[in-house]
Amino acid sequence: MDGLLTRCLRPLKAVANYLNAIAGVPDYQKYLEHMRRHHPDQQPMSESEFHRWATDEKYGGKGVRRCC
């Protein structure tokens, strides 16, 4: 049963990853992989820290800047 569920969810996960990449949503798993390969001596950010950092990078500062 688990194998069937995994096979059914795999295409949906691929579509979700594709849409996230188009929308510019950062991939925490890729970040962790990068840290393991290139910076094994450093502690990676937590997932919430990573997303906060990515938002700051995307919008240029602390939190989302809005005109209204």
TrEMBL record:
Any idea what this protein is called? DUF466 domain-containing protein
Q: Which organism is it from?
A: Polycladomyces abyssicola
Instruction: Look up the domain of life of the source.
Output: Bacteria
- Tell me the classification of the organism that encodes this protein: Bacteria, Bacillati, Bacillota, Bacilli, Bacillales
Q: Pfam families annotated for this entry?
A: Sel_put
